[in-house]
Amino acid sequence: MKSLVQTVVVLTVVAAPVISFAQANSAVTTEQVRADLVQLEQAGYHVGDGDNANYPADIQAAEARVAAQNGGSSYGGVVSGTSASGAPAPVTGLRPVYFGQ
Predict the structure, then answer these.
(1) Can you give the residue ranges of every domain in the chain?
(2) Do residues 62 and 46 make contact, with C-beta atoms less than 8 angstroms apart?
(3) Is residue 78 over pLDDT 70?
(4) In angstroms, rounded to a whole number, what is the distance separating the alpha carbons of residues 95 and 78?
(5) Which residues of 60-92 are buried (b: 16+ CB within 10 A; e: fewer)?
(6) pLDDT attached to residue 10
């Protein structure tokens, strides 16, 4: 009985990576990924330079430049504007139930 439990545990551990492997609809080769990285580097984005202060904006700007060179559209793009995440909602004359108590 003990060996049966061990066998089941070992098979589960071995099968887990196979089951959890993400399947893509289209296969992307290593060469395609490297070509995309080369295009991004030529557009001004450097992958391992250690400067992550402007990460989303930098890669989106580089993707937009690559898309402009290729004559197509890119994913995302440069987003302008601001966000008020975490800001309190404006009060329109209504008071909370426990105001002043």
Answers:
(1) 29-73
(2) no
(3) no
(4) 40
(5) bbbbbbbbeeeeeeeeeeeeeeeeeeeeeeeee
(6) 75
- For the stretch 65-68, contacts whose Cβ atoms lie closer than 8 Å and that sit 24 or more positions apart, written own/partner, are 66/39, 66/40
Q: Alpha-carbon distance 58 to 78, whole Å?
A: 9
In whole angstroms, give the CA distance from residue 22 to residue 43.
Answer: 30
pLDDT at residue 81 tops 80: no
Predicted model pTM: 0.43
Q: Which two tokens stand for residue 59?
A: 């890669």
Q: pLDDT tens-digit profile of 8-38?
A: 777 777 776 666 665 556 677 899 988 988 8
Q: Greatest CA separation found in the chain?
A: 71
Q: What is the pLDDT of residue 22?
A: 57
**Both tokens of residue 15?**
């099968």
Helix locations, the chain, DSSP H: 2-20, 30-42, 55-70
d(CA 37, CA 13): 34
